[in-house]
Design goal:
Length: 256
């Protein structure tokens, strides 16, 4: 039997998983991003105008502005967006003939020791970040986070949104779908870490420039973890942990 015959006889599980190349990753990524925005706008509008009798343009704009830092609105919008966009991103990956979701999104377990080391690195990063923030005379708990936490009722819904829903969607999209297509192109892993970190930071428009810069650096750490461990589970765990600690800080330091 020829070598070619042996290769063709390999079961599908042993063949390299297909994935969208750079053009497909960019186009599908833009499409998913648009759906993300539409869902956020529609759900926010539904929440703010329910029960309202005055639905004039000026009234709606005022309601939308007041809802930007509302913890309940943030919670519902985040969870709804995750429920819509998470299967959407997985479906886009599945549309590529020959792709396997597990390989596409690097759904691989990592040794407990490796995960603990990365959690240690995260803790050091967060402690240094808080120290620098305090030295600059800024509040450790950003104003947006403090306002959102204090206006969230019920509180558990905000914890669910920030600790579970947001990390699941954002890591699946940025360090999962985008990372796979970009890192395999001429952009390379280093460029991909920089680009996905910038895109991830850019969606956090609720923070000031200092906050967005901090988020970019955290994104770079998450991207580095994704690259070195070849597993999405590590940045996902780190992201959820960082958000959990942010909620803890808001609960104890951000009360008004």
């Amino acid at each position: 039997m020829s070598i070619e015959g042996n290769v063709c006889a390999l079961p599908p599980a042993e063949r390299p998983s297909a994935y969208w190349r750079l053009p497909g990753t960019i186009l599908w990524g833009i499409g998913a991003g648009l759906v993300f925005i539409v869902v956020q706008v529609v759900v926010t509008l539904f929440i703010v105008i329910r029960g309202q009798h005055d639905v004039s343009e000026q009234s709606i704009l005022g309601l939308l502005e007041s809802a930007q830092n509302n913890g309940f609105v943030l919670s519902v919008v985040t969870i709804a967006t995750t429920l819509v966009c998470l299967p959407l991103v997985a479906g886009i990956a599945g549309l590529k003939k020959g792709s396997r979701i597990r390989d596409y999104f690097a759904l691989r377990p990592v040794p407990a020791g490796s995960l603990m080391r990365w959690l240690g690195i995260l803790i050091v990063f967060l402690v240094l970040s808080d120290a620098v923030t305090a030295l600059l005379g800024k509040s450790v708990v950003p104003e947006f986070m403090s306002t959102a936490y204090n206006s969230s009722h019920p509180r558990w819904l905000l914890w669910l949104a920030l600790v579970v829903a947001a990390p699941l969607l954002e890591e699946t999209f940025f360090r999962g779908f985008l990372f796979k297509g970009l890192a395999s192109s001429f952009i390379g892993p280093v460029g991909t870490i920089a680009l996905t970190s910038a895109l991830w930071a850019a969606i956090h428009v609720q923070y000031d420039l200092y906050g967005i810069t901090t988020i970019y650096l955290l994104g770079a750490l998450l991207g580095l973890a994704r690259f070195l461990t070849r597993s999405l589970s590590v940045p996902l765990t780190l992201h959820a942990t960082a958000n959990f600690l942010a909620c803890v800080e808001a609960a104890f330091l951000g009360q008004v």
